[in-house]
């Protein structure tokens, strides 16, 4: 098999040998899980736990935001079944659409806002696949989260050059070396029928002399490059770096704050 090529906004090229992904037939697609997780970030923790309790019919108690998100996603049949819940308020939907810069009439009722939101998500999915006829049209959304001594610092970059520069600068500033967990619990991938491929990875951070100083987790959202054969572009990526000592075991995706909400996801062969 030819080796697919991953392109980070046409700036960095990484080769993966014989990499293919299985389909996973969950009720919600991975793109739907990503969108819903993003929306749920605007729900208060108490309301989120209440929503998880309602959806699981009181059979599951959640203690953290990540557990509540996972319960909601795993036990929901459709996006609409979540959006129509009482805890997903008209105000939340309006604010989310405003944040996404979607023109919205403030007189719309909740049902109309839901229709507007689902149409927006559908258009974004279409933009990422069918309309990819020129690499200059690609929207990049990339961020680096640094968590040191309880302080979370979010650094963002838009263009491909800026993304590469940001990652290199963070690595150099903190003198970091990345060691991924290459087991089935540390790297997972999934391909959707509409063409989006998502890769999740986690591992440990090292400094000089191999000293372990923390953990990292990263997500890649890939789309096929229509201008080159058997190549993929990274449309969106997020990486979280966490300072931590006394690490007794390799980190897993199921433990990650960034990656856990996107599970379950199948392992690449």
Structural notes for this entry:
With 269 residues, this protein is α+β, with helices and mostly antiparallel strands. It folds into two domains: 145 residues, Nuclear Transport Factor 2, Chain: A, CATH 3.10.450; 98 residues, no CATH class. 30% of the residues lie in helices and 25% in strands. It is built from seven helices and nine strands, in the order ββααααααββαβββββ. Strands 1, 2, 3, 4, 5, 6, 7, 8 and 9 form a nine-stranded mixed β-sheet that branches. α2 runs parallel beside α3.
Termini separation (Å)? 13 Å
Apparent shape: globular
Largest beta sheet, briefly?
9 strands, mixed
What is the CATH topology descriptor of the largest domain?
Answer: Nuclear Transport Factor 2, Chain: A
% residues in beta strands: 25-35%
Number of helices: 7
- Give the ordered list of helices and strands: EEHHHHHHEEHEEEEE
Query: What is the domain total for the residues?
Result: 2
Task: Count every beta strand, where a strand is a DSSP E run of 2 or more residues.
Answer: 9
Q: Quick one: CATH class of the largest domain? A: Alpha Beta
- Provide the gyration radius in Å: 19 Å
Which second-level CATH architecture of the largest domain applies? Roll
Helical content class:
25-40%
Protein name: NTF2 domain-containing protein
InterPro entries: UPF_C3orf38
Pfam families: DUF4518
Organism: Graphocephala atropunctata
């Amino acid at each position: 098999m030819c080796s697919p090529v991953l392109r980070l906004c046409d700036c960095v090229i990484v080769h993966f040998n014989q990499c293919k992904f299985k389909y996973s037939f969950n009720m919600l697609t991975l793109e739907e899980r990503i969108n819903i997780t993003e929306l749920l970030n605007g729900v208060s923790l108490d309301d989120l736990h209440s929503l998880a309790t309602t959806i699981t019919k009181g059979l599951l108690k959640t203690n953290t935001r990540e557990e509540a998100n996972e319960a909601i996603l795993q036990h929901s049949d459709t996006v609409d079944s979540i959006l129509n819940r009482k805890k997903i308020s008209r105000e939340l939907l309006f604010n989310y659409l405003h944040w996404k810069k979607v023109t919205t009439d403030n007189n719309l009722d909740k049902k109309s806002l839901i229709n507007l939101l689902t149409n927006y998500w559908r258009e974004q999915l279409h933009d990422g696949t069918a309309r990819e006829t020129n690499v200059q049209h690609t929207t990049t959304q990339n961020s680096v989260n640094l968590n040191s001594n309880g302080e979370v610092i979010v650094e963002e970059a838009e263009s491909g050059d800026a993304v590469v520069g940001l990652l290199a600068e963070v690595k150099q500033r903190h003198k970091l070396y990345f060691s991924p967990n290459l087991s089935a619990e540390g790297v997972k991938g999934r391909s959707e029928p509409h063409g989006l491929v998502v890769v999740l990875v986690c591992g440990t951070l090292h400094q000089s002399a191999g000293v372990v100083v923390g953990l990292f987790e990263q997500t890649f959202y890939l789309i096929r490059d229509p201008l080159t054969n058997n190549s993929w572009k990274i449309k969106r990526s997020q990486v979280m770096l966490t300072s931590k000592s006394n690490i007794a075991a390799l980190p897993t995706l199921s433990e990650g704050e960034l990656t856990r909400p996107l599970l379950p996801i199948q392992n690449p062969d």
